[in-house]
Amino acid sequence: MLVPLILALASFQSGTHLDDGIVELHTGRLIARPLQTLDNRESMSQMIGAYELLKRIKQTDEFVIKVPEGIYEEDLITQLQSTGLFEYVVNDVMVRTSSTVPNDVDYNLQWHHAVLNSPDAWDITTGDSAFIVTTVDVGLDINHPDLVDNLIPGYNSSSGIEQINGGDMSPTQADHGTATIGLIGATGNNLLGVTGIAWDISIMPVRATNNRNQALMSALVDGATWACDNGARVVSMSWHGGQSSSVKILGNYLRSQDSLLVWATGNYGNTVLGHDSADVIYVGATDISDNKAGFSVNGEWVDVVAPGGNVYVPSDNGGYRYWSGTSFATPIVAGILSMMMMVSPSSTAEQIEQMMYLNCVDLMAPGEDIDVGYGRPDFAACLQAAQYAESNYAGHDTIQLSANALDLYPGDSLHLAWSQAPLNSRYRIVYSLIDTSPLIDAWEGIYSAPHYRPRIFGTGTTHGHRGQDFNRLPNGAASGRTFYLEMQCDDNGVLRDSNTIRINVL
């Protein structure tokens, strides 16, 4: 299991749910109220004057301040509050009514949306037709009135024929493919049937079964890679066989394309030990009581769970039905991940995955466990985390990193210095004998050279630091070798800045 080393995104950072159905979102502005006991406000005025003053509300004695470019809101809040001049300094959040509820006639039968906090998530986005998600399944009802508006041409991987060239997409097993696609992308707010997680997204179907309803693993892999190569960022797979080596390699390929593979764990209710893949998101199921479903498989490979017990889904011939299985939990997770990617296009697939884990409701023992993994995603919290990550994105390779010398002897000390690093940012120094550029794409990321894992050399916080001393070179830095040092700065779980230098050992 890939263990996330990313710090949790606190609810006050990404957005706050209020009891009266209001959602607060950040704006890059602060509200500061001076201590009412201050006799002399000259110091406070000087402090405020260092920033762009947008407004003063005389009636409440509050000042609205613009957060300067390149400074995080929480950093400035801490700085101002530490002066002792203010009663409070808070985010000037965007406040709007929440609970976007679609008008679909059977929406009230979809209990999973209430559990997932879907209405609050849809306040942020309901999807984007430019974004593509794929289900690799058994075919579908391509004329279903709740799906037709969001479908784009797909692929029959059993025959190897694209839909636009005559590839048959008709279902070989009743309802299953129509259901999985509908959970992601059933059109919302159309006065018809049900609502998908991402109701304005583009769904690219892949049929992997032959006319006898048989699917080879090679057809599944071919279908998923075809979808990825044709624009799909998330691929949902509701099949058994998740333990196959081919599945692991498929997950690795999709990660290399900055895409995600989501796979069902199965419905046997047993425990499968000793199996996992860091590049595949394995999904179990929950029931209407938000408990793990009895049929859902256990094991180290379980990453998350989602509603899958008696969920209401589209079926063939324009119909609808209730159905249970991890098959239906999987597209729900795929839909959530796709929406997060849309909200934060600057985040990598790896970062999106980790943000989802950090915004799961822990249903059983604290932390990750073999029953429910990290728990059940809170859809709204996931999108708010992605929104916060995007609004604070700073890009990579902006840190100016240097060493006391670029040619050193094995017994020499090493001094690193830096500038232009984010204020009060957690950092770590990692090293590698291989230039993977970057050494680690995130705190625990995708390695260009997976046979050699970069090592941690030092950690700290950038506040008050302009450098770090080491009384030795990294292990393995022997005479005649070259090694690479990278400084990475993290902000609330997202890699913001990094840069790498090369050191030659004489």
Structure characterization notes:
- With 506 residues, the chain is an alpha/beta fold.
- It folds into three domains: 66 residues, Alpha-Beta Plaits (2-Layer Sandwich), CATH 3.30.70; 283 residues, Peptidase S8/S53 domain (Rossmann fold, 3-Layer(aba) Sandwich), CATH 3.40.50.200; 106 residues, Immunoglobulins (Immunoglobulin-like, Sandwich), CATH 2.60.40.10.
- 21% of the residues lie in helices and 27% in strands.
- The protein contains eleven helices and 27 strands.
- It is globular, with a radius of gyration of 25 Å.
What labels would you give this structure?
506 residues, Alpha-Beta Plaits, Rossmann fold, Immunoglobulin-like, 8-stranded mixed sheet, 5-stranded mixed sheet, 11 helices
Strand order of the largest sheet: 10-9-11-8-12-13-14-15
Count of the domains: 3
Biggest sheet character: 8 strands, mixed
Distance between the amino and carboxyl termini: 39 Å
Secondary structure layout plus pairing:
Elements: H1 11-14, E1 16-17, E2 22-25, E3 29-34, H2 42-49, E4 53-57, E5 62-66, H3 73-81, E6 86-91, E7 94-97, H4 111-116, H5 118-122, E8 132-137, E9 155-156, E10 161-162, H6 176-185, E11 202-207, H7 217-229, E12 232-237, H8 245-256, E13 260-264, E14 281-286, E15 304-307, E16 311-315, E17 319-323, H9 326-343, H10 349-358, E18 360-361, E19 376-377, H11 379-391, E20 400-403, E21 407-408, E22 414-419, E23 426-432, E24 455-461, E25 467-470, E26 482-491, E27 494-505
Helix pairs in contact: 6-9, 7-8, 9-10, 9-11
